[in-house]
Design a protein that fits this description.
7 strands; 27% helix; two-stranded antiparallel sheet; alpha+beta; globular; five-stranded mixed beta sheet; binds magnesium ion
Length: 161
């Protein structure tokens, strides 16, 4: 087995007038994440970890936020494209572990839905996907702007032919 590990990270500003989407799941909340795409920090951290572990350029290079074709794009489409690229390099996703850093809203009611969606899109058993969240105990509220961040560890397995 030839295993590759990488960490991805992303953070977006939380603002009024946007839908909140995390790991492709729409979450009812009065604010959403600002971004050129849908601002899905979960998928962006995951995509960057997958690209890094497979030796490909990062998310900003492959899907530039100046490119009009990615304006308001659902990040799940970027994940599908990323999986294609990673598979082309001979890799399979073996494990994913995500940690959101988020004071509000409470994300645990959505973990199962997120896992199901990631499992289907990564061709990976739900038991190999970890999702959790930590709060900042109100520290984010004290900042000028609110945000949600995400850290993601990915393990890829290269098939020797
Ligand atoms: Mg991003």
């Amino acid at each position: 087995m030839n295993l590759k590990f990488a960490i991805g990270f992303d953070i977006h500003k939380l603002v009024s007038g946007r839908k909140l989407k995390l790991c492709g799941v729409e979450i009812p909340f009065e604010k959403g994440l600002l971004g050129h795409s849908d601002g899905d920090v979960g998928l962006h951290a995951l995509i960057d970890a997958m690209l890094s572990a497979s030796g490909l350029p990062d998310i900003g290079t492959l899907f530039p936020d100046k490119d009009p074709q990615y304006k308001n794009i659902e990040s799940i489409k970027l994940l599908k494209k990323t999986l294609e690229l990673v598979e082309k390099q001979g890799f399979k996703v073996s494990q994913v572990d995500l940690t959101f850093i988020c004071d509000e809203p409470k994300l645990s009611p959505f973990y199962e839905k997120m896992k199901k969606l990631l499992s289907e899109n990564l061709k990976l058993a739900p038991s190999e996907i970890g999702i959790k969240a930590r709060t900042t105990e109100g520290l984010i509220k004290d900042l000028k702007e609110e945000a949600i961040a995400c850290l993601c560890l990915v393990v890829l397995n290269k098939h020797e032919s």
